[in-house]
Amino acid sequence: MGARIRSWLVAVWRTMRRPSVHYSLGFLVLGGFIAGVIFWGAFNTALEATNSEAFCTGCHEMRDNVFQELKATIHYTNRSGVRATCPDCHVPHRWTDKIARKMQASKEVWGKLFGTIDTREKFLDHRLELAEHEWARLKANDSLECRNCHNYASMDLTRQSARAAEIHKRWLGSGEKTCIDCHKGIAHHLPDMTGIPQG
Amino acid sequence: MRDKPLVALAIVVVLAAIAVGYAVGRRKAPPPPSPAAETTTAYSPADNAGAPPASGQIDAIRRGIPVDQEGEPPLMARVENTDVKRNRAYPMQPPTIPHSIDNYQIDRNSNRCLLCHARANADKFQAPPVSVTHYMDRDDQFLATISPRRYFCNQCHVVQTDAKPLVANNFKDIDTILSGQIDQPQQKAN
Protein backbone atom coordinates (compact mmCIF):
# COMPACT_ATOMS: atom_id res chain seq x y z
CA MET A 1 0.00 0.00 0.00
CA GLY A 2 2.74 2.45 1.04
CA ALA A 3 4.80 1.51 -1.98
CA ARG A 4 1.85 2.07 -4.31
CA ILE A 5 1.17 5.55 -2.96
CA ARG A 6 4.86 6.30 -3.16
CA SER A 7 5.15 5.23 -6.78
CA TRP A 8 2.04 7.25 -7.62
CA LEU A 9 3.47 10.33 -5.95
CA VAL A 10 6.72 9.88 -7.83
CA ALA A 11 4.83 9.64 -11.12
CA VAL A 12 2.90 12.83 -10.31
CA TRP A 13 6.07 14.62 -9.32
CA ARG A 14 7.76 13.62 -12.60
CA THR A 15 4.80 14.84 -14.61
CA MET A 16 4.68 18.10 -12.71
CA ARG A 17 8.39 18.68 -13.01
CA ARG A 18 8.64 18.12 -16.74
CA PRO A 19 5.08 18.11 -18.10
CA SER A 20 6.12 18.62 -21.69
CA VAL A 21 7.61 15.10 -21.72
CA HIS A 22 4.17 13.72 -20.96
CA TYR A 23 1.80 16.17 -22.69
CA SER A 24 2.03 17.99 -25.97
CA LEU A 25 2.99 21.65 -25.98
CA GLY A 26 -0.30 22.50 -27.67
CA PHE A 27 -2.25 20.76 -24.93
CA LEU A 28 -0.29 22.55 -22.22
CA VAL A 29 -0.69 25.98 -23.83
CA LEU A 30 -4.38 25.53 -24.58
CA GLY A 31 -5.02 23.89 -21.21
CA GLY A 32 -3.16 26.67 -19.45
CA PHE A 33 -5.12 29.27 -21.38
CA ILE A 34 -8.49 27.71 -20.57
CA ALA A 35 -7.51 27.16 -16.94
CA GLY A 36 -6.42 30.81 -16.81
CA VAL A 37 -9.75 31.96 -18.21
CA ILE A 38 -11.63 29.84 -15.69
CA PHE A 39 -9.48 31.06 -12.82
CA TRP A 40 -9.86 34.68 -13.83
CA GLY A 41 -13.59 34.32 -14.29
CA ALA A 42 -13.97 32.72 -10.89
CA PHE A 43 -11.77 35.33 -9.24
CA ASN A 44 -13.68 38.21 -10.75
CA THR A 45 -17.04 36.64 -10.01
CA ALA A 46 -16.06 36.18 -6.38
CA LEU A 47 -14.73 39.75 -6.26
CA GLU A 48 -17.93 41.17 -7.68
CA ALA A 49 -19.98 39.03 -5.30
CA THR A 50 -18.29 40.81 -2.40
CA ASN A 51 -19.09 44.09 -4.15
CA SER A 52 -22.84 43.82 -3.89
CA GLU A 53 -25.35 45.30 -1.50
CA ALA A 54 -26.61 41.83 -0.63
CA PHE A 55 -23.11 40.92 0.55
CA CYS A 56 -22.69 44.13 2.57
CA THR A 57 -26.05 43.78 4.26
CA GLY A 58 -25.44 40.11 4.92
CA CYS A 59 -23.90 41.12 8.23
CA HIS A 60 -26.09 42.71 10.88
CA GLU A 61 -23.49 45.43 11.55
CA MET A 62 -24.23 46.99 8.18
CA ARG A 63 -27.84 45.89 7.81
CA ASP A 64 -29.10 47.23 11.14
CA ASN A 65 -27.11 50.46 11.27
CA VAL A 66 -25.93 52.17 8.12
CA PHE A 67 -28.24 50.43 5.67
CA GLN A 68 -31.35 51.49 7.58
CA GLU A 69 -30.14 55.09 7.52
CA LEU A 70 -29.47 54.94 3.80
CA LYS A 71 -33.04 53.86 3.08
CA ALA A 72 -34.53 57.26 3.88
CA THR A 73 -32.13 59.22 1.71
CA ILE A 74 -32.29 60.25 -1.92
CA HIS A 75 -29.52 57.84 -2.80
CA TYR A 76 -31.84 54.94 -2.01
CA THR A 77 -35.23 56.20 -3.12
CA ASN A 78 -36.02 59.05 -5.49
CA ARG A 79 -38.24 60.08 -8.39
CA SER A 80 -36.24 58.53 -11.22
CA GLY A 81 -35.33 55.26 -9.54
CA VAL A 82 -31.60 55.54 -10.17
CA ARG A 83 -29.90 54.48 -6.99
CA ALA A 84 -26.52 54.00 -5.47
CA THR A 85 -25.62 50.78 -3.71
CA CYS A 86 -22.95 50.46 -1.03
CA PRO A 87 -19.98 49.77 -3.33
CA ASP A 88 -20.86 52.67 -5.64
CA CYS A 89 -19.67 55.05 -2.95
CA HIS A 90 -17.45 52.93 -0.77
CA VAL A 91 -15.37 50.90 -3.25
CA PRO A 92 -13.27 52.54 -5.96
CA HIS A 93 -14.31 51.55 -9.46
CA ARG A 94 -10.84 51.37 -11.02
CA TRP A 95 -9.40 47.87 -10.76
CA THR A 96 -6.10 48.56 -8.99
CA ASP A 97 -7.73 50.90 -6.48
CA LYS A 98 -10.47 48.35 -5.96
CA ILE A 99 -7.96 45.59 -5.16
CA ALA A 100 -6.14 47.94 -2.79
CA ARG A 101 -9.40 48.71 -1.00
CA LYS A 102 -10.28 45.04 -0.86
CA MET A 103 -6.95 44.29 0.79
CA GLN A 104 -7.64 47.04 3.31
CA ALA A 105 -10.98 45.40 3.95
CA SER A 106 -9.19 42.44 5.52
CA LYS A 107 -9.15 44.68 8.61
CA GLU A 108 -12.93 44.67 8.42
CA VAL A 109 -12.92 40.86 8.37
CA TRP A 110 -10.85 41.03 11.55
CA GLY A 111 -13.38 43.42 13.05
CA LYS A 112 -16.21 41.08 12.10
CA LEU A 113 -14.50 38.03 13.61
CA PHE A 114 -13.75 39.77 16.89
CA GLY A 115 -17.03 41.71 17.08
CA THR A 116 -15.59 45.23 17.08
CA ILE A 117 -18.96 46.80 16.30
CA ASP A 118 -21.32 43.91 16.92
CA THR A 119 -23.71 45.91 19.09
CA ARG A 120 -25.41 49.23 18.45
CA GLU A 121 -23.49 50.81 21.33
CA LYS A 122 -20.12 49.64 20.06
CA PHE A 123 -21.03 50.87 16.60
CA LEU A 124 -21.95 54.32 17.90
CA ASP A 125 -18.68 54.44 19.84
CA HIS A 126 -16.72 53.73 16.67
CA ARG A 127 -18.89 55.75 14.35
CA LEU A 128 -16.75 58.89 14.32
CA GLU A 129 -13.58 56.92 13.63
CA LEU A 130 -15.22 54.96 10.81
CA ALA A 131 -16.70 58.11 9.31
CA GLU A 132 -13.36 59.87 9.47
CA HIS A 133 -11.77 57.09 7.43
CA GLU A 134 -14.32 57.62 4.69
CA TRP A 135 -14.04 61.41 4.79
CA ALA A 136 -10.25 61.16 4.55
CA ARG A 137 -10.49 58.76 1.63
CA LEU A 138 -12.95 60.92 -0.29
CA LYS A 139 -11.01 64.07 0.48
CA ALA A 140 -7.80 62.45 -0.78
CA ASN A 141 -9.28 61.30 -4.08
CA ASP A 142 -11.24 64.53 -4.66
CA SER A 143 -14.58 62.81 -4.01
CA LEU A 144 -14.03 60.41 -6.88
CA GLU A 145 -16.90 58.14 -5.90
CA CYS A 146 -19.31 61.08 -5.89
CA ARG A 147 -18.00 62.26 -9.21
CA ASN A 148 -18.47 58.87 -10.82
CA CYS A 149 -22.09 60.01 -11.12
CA HIS A 150 -22.14 63.72 -10.21
CA ASN A 151 -19.97 65.45 -12.77
CA TYR A 152 -19.60 69.20 -12.30
CA ALA A 153 -19.16 69.70 -16.04
CA SER A 154 -22.56 68.07 -16.60
CA MET A 155 -24.38 69.93 -13.85
CA ASP A 156 -27.03 72.28 -15.24
CA LEU A 157 -26.78 75.02 -12.66
CA THR A 158 -29.93 76.67 -13.98
CA ARG A 159 -31.90 73.60 -12.92
CA GLN A 160 -30.59 73.82 -9.39
CA SER A 161 -32.07 76.12 -6.83
CA ALA A 162 -30.48 79.55 -6.97
CA ARG A 163 -28.80 78.96 -3.65
CA ALA A 164 -27.33 75.59 -4.64
CA ALA A 165 -26.17 76.91 -8.01
CA GLU A 166 -24.41 79.86 -6.42
CA ILE A 167 -22.62 77.73 -3.85
CA HIS A 168 -21.62 75.03 -6.33
CA LYS A 169 -20.24 77.60 -8.73
CA ARG A 170 -18.36 79.34 -6.02
CA TRP A 171 -16.76 76.42 -4.20
CA LEU A 172 -16.95 73.37 -6.46
CA GLY A 173 -16.45 75.19 -9.74
CA SER A 174 -13.36 76.93 -8.47
CA GLY A 175 -11.98 73.62 -7.21
CA GLU A 176 -11.53 75.13 -3.78
CA LYS A 177 -13.69 72.51 -2.13
CA THR A 178 -14.65 68.98 -2.96
CA CYS A 179 -18.03 67.29 -2.55
CA ILE A 180 -17.35 65.70 0.84
CA ASP A 181 -16.35 69.02 2.42
CA CYS A 182 -20.00 70.10 2.55
CA HIS A 183 -21.94 66.91 1.88
CA LYS A 184 -21.00 64.86 4.90
CA GLY A 185 -23.73 62.67 6.26
CA ILE A 186 -25.90 62.68 3.16
CA ALA A 187 -26.32 58.91 3.11
CA HIS A 188 -25.84 58.07 6.78
CA HIS A 189 -26.40 59.85 10.07
CA LEU A 190 -23.57 61.96 11.39
CA PRO A 191 -21.69 61.18 14.60
CA ASP A 192 -21.00 63.90 17.16
CA MET A 193 -19.57 66.62 14.94
CA THR A 194 -18.23 68.87 17.68
CA GLY A 195 -15.04 70.47 16.44
CA ILE A 196 -15.22 68.97 12.97
CA PRO A 197 -15.40 71.53 10.18
CA GLN A 198 -18.37 71.12 7.89
CA GLY A 199 -18.46 73.19 4.76
CA MET B 1 -6.87 7.73 -27.05
CA ARG B 2 -4.35 10.58 -26.85
CA ASP B 3 -6.91 13.37 -26.64
CA LYS B 4 -8.55 11.95 -23.56
CA PRO B 5 -7.43 14.68 -21.14
CA LEU B 6 -8.38 17.34 -23.69
CA VAL B 7 -11.86 15.89 -24.11
CA ALA B 8 -12.27 15.61 -20.35
CA LEU B 9 -11.16 19.21 -19.94
CA ALA B 10 -13.52 20.38 -22.68
CA ILE B 11 -16.41 18.62 -20.93
CA VAL B 12 -15.47 20.25 -17.63
CA VAL B 13 -15.36 23.68 -19.30
CA VAL B 14 -18.75 23.18 -20.91
CA LEU B 15 -20.26 21.96 -17.64
CA ALA B 16 -18.78 24.91 -15.79
CA ALA B 17 -20.16 27.32 -18.40
CA ILE B 18 -23.60 25.73 -18.07
CA ALA B 19 -23.49 25.92 -14.28
CA VAL B 20 -22.40 29.59 -14.31
CA GLY B 21 -24.98 30.44 -16.97
CA TYR B 22 -27.71 28.72 -15.00
CA ALA B 23 -26.77 30.47 -11.77
CA VAL B 24 -26.57 33.91 -13.43
CA GLY B 25 -29.77 33.39 -15.41
CA ARG B 26 -31.70 32.26 -12.38
CA ARG B 27 -30.63 35.26 -10.35
CA LYS B 28 -31.72 37.72 -13.04
CA ALA B 29 -35.07 36.13 -13.82
CA PRO B 30 -37.96 38.43 -12.91
CA PRO B 31 -40.11 37.29 -9.99
CA PRO B 32 -43.42 35.72 -10.94
CA PRO B 33 -46.24 38.26 -11.04
CA SER B 34 -48.21 38.29 -7.84
CA PRO B 35 -51.97 38.02 -8.09
CA ALA B 36 -52.36 40.91 -5.63
CA ALA B 37 -50.67 43.35 -8.03
CA GLU B 38 -53.98 44.46 -9.52
CA THR B 39 -55.90 46.56 -7.10
CA THR B 40 -59.40 47.71 -7.69
CA THR B 41 -59.93 51.43 -7.47
CA ALA B 42 -62.98 52.24 -5.46
CA TYR B 43 -64.98 55.45 -5.65
CA SER B 44 -62.74 58.34 -6.61
CA PRO B 45 -64.07 61.56 -5.12
CA ALA B 46 -62.36 63.95 -7.52
CA ASP B 47 -64.80 66.70 -6.57
CA ASN B 48 -63.83 66.49 -2.93
CA ALA B 49 -60.07 66.42 -3.50
CA GLY B 50 -59.15 69.96 -2.52
CA ALA B 51 -62.30 71.96 -1.92
CA PRO B 52 -63.93 72.17 1.49
CA PRO B 53 -67.22 70.29 1.72
CA ALA B 54 -70.47 72.01 0.82
CA SER B 55 -71.84 71.69 4.32
CA GLY B 56 -69.30 74.25 5.48
CA GLN B 57 -67.96 71.94 8.12
CA ILE B 58 -64.23 71.29 8.04
CA ASP B 59 -63.55 67.60 7.72
CA ALA B 60 -59.81 67.40 7.21
CA ILE B 61 -59.56 63.68 7.75
CA ARG B 62 -62.34 62.34 5.53
CA ARG B 63 -62.97 65.41 3.35
CA GLY B 64 -66.71 64.71 3.25
CA ILE B 65 -66.38 61.16 1.98
CA PRO B 66 -68.88 58.73 3.54
CA VAL B 67 -67.28 56.44 6.12
CA ASP B 68 -68.08 53.29 4.18
CA GLN B 69 -66.11 54.49 1.18
CA GLU B 70 -62.40 54.77 0.56
CA GLY B 71 -61.24 58.28 -0.15
CA GLU B 72 -58.51 59.28 -2.53
CA PRO B 73 -55.80 61.30 -0.81
CA PRO B 74 -55.16 64.77 -2.19
CA LEU B 75 -51.87 65.36 -3.97
CA MET B 76 -48.97 65.82 -1.64
CA ALA B 77 -48.02 69.46 -1.32
CA ARG B 78 -44.62 70.51 -2.58
CA VAL B 79 -42.19 72.52 -0.54
CA GLU B 80 -41.46 75.95 -2.02
CA ASN B 81 -37.78 75.97 -2.92
CA THR B 82 -37.36 79.38 -4.54
CA ASP B 83 -34.78 80.89 -2.15
CA VAL B 84 -36.74 84.14 -2.18
CA LYS B 85 -37.20 85.50 1.32
CA ARG B 86 -40.78 86.07 2.40
CA ASN B 87 -42.16 88.95 4.39
CA ARG B 88 -43.07 88.36 7.99
CA ALA B 89 -46.79 88.53 8.64
CA TYR B 90 -46.22 90.23 12.01
CA PRO B 91 -43.15 91.74 13.66
CA MET B 92 -42.20 88.83 15.91
CA GLN B 93 -42.85 86.07 13.42
CA PRO B 94 -39.96 83.65 13.01
CA PRO B 95 -38.96 83.96 9.34
CA THR B 96 -40.14 81.06 7.21
CA ILE B 97 -37.59 78.89 5.42
CA PRO B 98 -37.51 79.67 1.67
CA HIS B 99 -35.92 76.36 0.66
CA SER B 100 -36.46 72.65 1.16
CA ILE B 101 -34.90 70.98 4.17
CA ASP B 102 -35.34 67.33 3.25
CA ASN B 103 -33.29 65.00 5.42
CA TYR B 104 -31.58 67.78 7.32
CA GLN B 105 -30.07 66.23 10.41
CA ILE B 106 -30.80 68.30 13.51
CA ASP B 107 -29.95 66.33 16.61
CA ARG B 108 -27.46 66.13 19.44
CA ASN B 109 -24.69 65.24 17.01
CA SER B 110 -25.10 67.72 14.23
CA ASN B 111 -27.18 70.65 13.03
CA ARG B 112 -27.41 70.91 9.27
CA CYS B 113 -28.99 74.38 9.35
CA LEU B 114 -26.03 75.83 11.17
CA LEU B 115 -23.74 74.55 8.43
CA CYS B 116 -24.74 77.68 6.52
CA HIS B 117 -26.61 79.85 9.02
CA ALA B 118 -24.12 79.82 11.87
CA ARG B 119 -22.46 83.15 12.51
CA ALA B 120 -19.08 81.76 11.47
CA ASN B 121 -20.26 80.18 8.21
CA ALA B 122 -22.77 82.71 6.94
CA ASP B 123 -20.28 84.52 4.71
CA LYS B 124 -19.14 81.33 2.98
CA PHE B 125 -22.65 80.47 1.92
CA GLN B 126 -24.11 83.99 1.80
CA ALA B 127 -26.83 82.81 4.14
CA PRO B 128 -28.62 85.06 6.62
CA PRO B 129 -26.88 84.39 9.93
CA VAL B 130 -28.87 83.32 12.92
CA SER B 131 -30.17 86.30 14.88
CA VAL B 132 -28.11 87.52 17.82
CA THR B 133 -31.00 86.73 20.14
CA HIS B 134 -30.36 83.06 19.45
CA TYR B 135 -26.98 83.36 21.13
CA MET B 136 -28.55 84.68 24.34
CA ASP B 137 -29.64 82.61 27.27
CA ARG B 138 -32.82 83.46 29.11
CA ASP B 139 -30.99 85.92 31.36
CA ASP B 140 -29.93 87.81 28.22
CA GLN B 141 -26.33 86.77 28.64
CA PHE B 142 -24.50 86.19 25.37
CA LEU B 143 -23.06 82.76 24.70
CA ALA B 144 -20.28 81.74 22.34
CA THR B 145 -22.45 79.21 20.57
CA ILE B 146 -26.11 78.93 19.76
CA SER B 147 -28.26 78.84 22.87
CA PRO B 148 -29.52 75.32 23.65
CA ARG B 149 -33.10 76.57 23.79
CA ARG B 150 -32.76 77.83 20.20
CA TYR B 151 -30.97 74.78 18.86
CA PHE B 152 -33.86 73.02 17.16
CA CYS B 153 -34.46 75.42 14.29
CA ASN B 154 -37.62 73.89 12.90
CA GLN B 155 -39.37 74.20 16.21
CA CYS B 156 -40.12 77.78 15.07
CA HIS B 157 -38.87 78.11 11.49
CA VAL B 158 -40.82 76.11 8.97
CA VAL B 159 -40.91 75.57 5.24
CA GLN B 160 -43.94 76.65 3.23
CA THR B 161 -45.76 74.41 0.79
CA ASP B 162 -48.11 75.08 -2.09
CA ALA B 163 -50.96 73.31 -0.28
CA LYS B 164 -54.38 74.94 -0.52
CA PRO B 165 -55.46 76.28 2.89
CA LEU B 166 -58.43 74.37 4.32
CA VAL B 167 -59.68 77.46 6.13
CA ALA B 168 -59.84 80.95 4.73
CA ASN B 169 -57.74 83.49 6.59
CA ASN B 170 -58.54 87.19 6.87
CA PHE B 171 -55.60 88.18 9.02
CA LYS B 172 -54.43 91.77 8.42
CA ASP B 173 -50.98 92.82 9.49
CA ILE B 174 -50.43 95.96 11.53
CA ASP B 175 -49.27 98.07 8.58
CA THR B 176 -52.50 97.41 6.73
CA ILE B 177 -54.53 98.43 9.77
CA LEU B 178 -52.46 101.58 10.31
CA SER B 179 -52.73 102.65 6.69
CA GLY B 180 -56.49 102.09 6.93
CA GLN B 181 -56.61 104.50 9.88
CA ILE B 182 -54.57 107.13 8.07
CA ASP B 183 -57.08 107.11 5.24
CA GLN B 184 -59.78 108.21 7.67
CA PRO B 185 -59.36 112.01 8.11
CA GLN B 186 -60.70 112.32 11.69
CA GLN B 187 -58.02 109.98 13.06
CA LYS B 188 -55.00 111.71 11.53
CA ALA B 189 -52.02 111.54 13.85
CA ASN B 190 -50.88 115.15 13.40
What report would you give on this structure?
Chain A contains twelve helices and no strands. Chain A is mostly helical and 199 residues long. Among the domains of chain B are: 43-75, no CATH class; 112-155, Flavocytochrome C3, Chain A, domain 2 (Orthogonal Bundle), CATH 1.10.1130.10. Chain B has four helices and no strands. Chain B is elongated, with a radius of gyration of 32 Å. At the A-B interface, helix 3 and helix 11 of A face helix 1 and helix 2 of B.
Named at the architecture level, the CATH assignment of the domain at 112-155 in chain B is Orthogonal Bundle
Estimated structural class of chain A = mainly alpha
Determine the N-to-C terminus distance of chain B: 123 Å
Low-confidence stretches of chain B: 33-48
Radius of gyration of chain A: 25 Å
Helix content of chain B: 10-25%
- Strand segment count of chain A: 0
**Low-pLDDT residue spans of chain A:** none
pLDDT average of chain A, as an integer?
92
Q: Which range does the strand content of chain B fall in?
A: under 5%
What is the helix/strand order of chain A? HHHHHHHHHHHH
Which quaternary structure do these chains form? heterodimer
How many helices of chain B? The count is 4
Strand content of chain A: under 5%
The helix count of chain A comes to 12
Key attributes of the depicted protein:
heterodimer; B: 190 residues; mainly alpha; 4 helices; elongated
Summarize the structure.
The complex is a heterodimer of chains A (199) and B (190). Chain A is mainly alpha-helical and 199 residues long.
How are the SSEs ordered, and which strands pair?
The complex is a heterodimer of chains A (199) and B (190).
Chain A: H1 2-17, H2 19-22, H3 25-49, H4 53-56, H5 60-70, H6 86-90, H7 95-104, H8 106-113, H9 120-140, H10 144-147, H11 162-172, H12 179-182
Chain B: H1 4-28, H2 112-117, H3 122-125, H4 174-183
